[in-house]
TrEMBL record:
Keywords: Hydrolase, Thiamine pyrophosphate
Similarity comment text for this entry: Belongs to the TPP enzyme family.
EC nos: 3.7.1.22
Protein's UniProt keywords contain Glycoprotein: no
Source organism of this protein record: Marinomonas transparens
Protein name: 3D-(3,5/4)-trihydroxycyclohexane-1,2-dione acylhydrolase (Decyclizing)
One Gene Ontology molecular-function label: magnesium ion binding
Domain Thiamine pyrophosphate enzyme N-terminal TPP-binding: 43-131
GO biological process, one term: isoleucine biosynthetic process
Domain Thiamine pyrophosphate enzyme central: 219-350
Amino acid sequence: MNTIRLTMAQAVVRYMMAQKIATDSGVQPMFAGVWGIFGHGNVAGLGEALYQVKEQLPTYRAHNEQGMAHAAIAYAKTKNRQQMMACTASAGPGSLNMVTAAAVAHVNRIPVLFLPGDTFATRVPDPVLQQVENFHDMTLTSNDCFRPVSRFFDRITRPEQLLASLPQAIRVLLDPIECGPATLALPQDVQTMAFDYPVDFFQEKIHRLRRQGPDQHELEAAIELIRQAKKPVVIAGGGLHYSAALNEFDQFVSDLHLPVGETQAGKGALVWDHPQNMGSVGVTGAAAANTLFSQADLVIAVGTRLGDFTTGSRAMIRPDAKILSLNVASFDAIKHKAQALVGDAKLTLPLLSHALKGWKVADEWNAQAQNERLSWNAIVDNAMADKGLDLPTDAQVIGAVNRAAGKNDMVLCAAGGLPGELHKLWRTSHPRGYHMEYGYSCMGYELAGGLGAKMAHPEGDVYVMVGDGSYLMMNSEIATSVMLGHKVIMVVLDNRGFGCINRLQQAGGGAGFNNLLEDCLTVPEGAPKTDFAAHAKALGANAEKVANIAELEQALIRAKSSPISYLITLDTDPLATTQEGGHWWDVALAEVSEREQVRDARKAYEQHKARQFNNL
């Protein structure tokens, strides 16, 4: 057997480089690069190994470990999981900073390879700097925090363990069902240990998306359910993007005249003005889609995990309505007592279309859907129009950005009130024109995610829309975007606090407390007014503050022509939202309170809960 002597870290890097993937653009490296912040836990091992191949496998230096992992997540999401990145950080706080991002990847089912440095496997110098000592279990380290937020976890305590572990990690990263973050904890001493690895372990391997066809019995049951339906509707989920099944989906819903509601992840599966696109669905849903879904006798869920925002916390769909769930993962397909149709969407949708050829929904149901769609589009036009307000609404800012965005551009967001408004209002004209991290809705994802999305989508501008709260949580990757030359356009909506949660607090009868800065404990002078433009300039970006929508529209022109990242900030109304559309969301309210408003809100809450229980 031919062997090659390598350190464990060198073997990891060489194996990563040998993995290729067949994509829409041909065979590509599976790993487009490695994000790394070095410390004593990885600099002499993995850092040295990455240096040796820096021309073939680029290493990107970030400013925050969580931020770089968000960038890796956004990159893989934008690439529809066809390419991905790895992330490495030092033992201790550096690696723990990536745990939140690992949870983001886990919930959203996005592939990222985490390579956190770990403490000495030999334990000879224990306790080393930044080591967490566990009093009852000496095998535990801070990296064990990755276990619940990783699809695959292993700690490599001997170099030869890679022979079994690395193929399993790659399997999970590419599996359409188990897809998510894989974590290999790498003790710093083992990273530097050598082993005679088999040469053929590092042979190039080309991976392809595995597609699973449906079970014949499930397919026949699904066809019968659709044929019996009088008022069917469809949920477009993110799985349609990852399956590359958009053309098949278009044909399916167009041939059968099925009205479609989009999830956050599924938005863009149909262009915004497609005749069957009724807009967003659920808690942040369009009035058109939600009206139809509340009347439907069959919900066809395609590629969605049916989260609470999609189903209105299980209270939006009629109790007697049936659910047909087409999903590659049986875990998702059986949710909500659905009739499961387990299979890949690209393979399964044409089978449904063929079997249902000549069948379509009743003309009356289609006519109602078209009327609802036209009415909703008029509402969107009005909501996004400039009203000349001193404090514009989020919707009006979205309108200005949407009008400025070109046909290849993308909007990106994650947390606060903006995801709801964007879900309702943003009009996307291409499949990846809308990028929302709303599985975990992680504050701080936005600016770092914008960097990763731009790296994956260089052919268009990336507009990051972010509130002041998320901006202040994590903004350091603005400097990274300038350093790497990946321009991002950022629009910061400053409502002086956590406006979304303030509205939620008051909707539940609570007093304004600890959300808006004016309702927080501060010095007598109040909280400082952050100059976001000056801050972004200090990080190397171009920036300006505008006073209204008219000035914003002119600033967006300047931002598009800027060669480097550009930030625009403006003050916005913390209270106003688009009232049309939407649905109840289950946020538990206190059973006992001194406030009459809370007691009244609790009564309304219990009425919604009664409908929810009917759907269990």
